[in-house]
């Protein structure tokens, strides 16, 4: 089956701070944008942030292995080289990685992940599978 990029639209507080975080901090590209919205290229996927003012996502966390993860988050699966480079870049910057670890060790679906919070309070996860074919394996 052919892979198609996804589109996700989310509210945000500030277009300029959101754009700065995704472009300057994470090193991603911005696409079309105005003062009220911006498209971010999240590894070939289109995430649109729209300035809306106050909003609230009351989300719960869940336990996965020995870690407590945010139930509501944006995530992208990347290859090992991309994961390592981004992780290293963020560790060397003033950005705060809020959670990182390896999951499902020695099991189908084994992967490493880290999370970082954007200026809107969204948790962004970067995930890398030990065996890329395991992404949808049962």
Provide a short characterization of the protein structure:
The protein has 138 residues and is an alpha+beta fold. The chain contains two helices and ten strands. The longest helix is centred in the middle third of the chain and has 12 residues, at 80-91.
Number of helical stretches of at least 4 residues:
2
Query: Looking across the biggest beta sheet, what order are the strands in?
Result: 1-4-3-2
Q: pLDDT under 50 segments (min length 5)?
A: none
As a percent range, the share of strand residues is: 35-45%
Overall average pLDDT:
92
List keywords for this structure.
four-stranded mixed sheet; alpha+beta; 138 residues; single chain
3D architecture notes:
The structure is a single chain. It contains 2 helices and 10 strands; from the N terminus they run βαββββββαβββ. With 138 residues, the protein is of the alpha+beta class. The relative contact order is 0.18. It has a 4-stranded mixed beta sheet with strand order 1-4-3-2, with helices on one face. It has helices at residues 15-25, 80-91; strands at residues 7-12, 29-33, 37-42, 45-51, 61-64, 67-70, 74-77, 97-103, 111-117, 123-129. It is globular, with a radius of gyration of 15 Å. β2 and β3 form a beta hairpin.
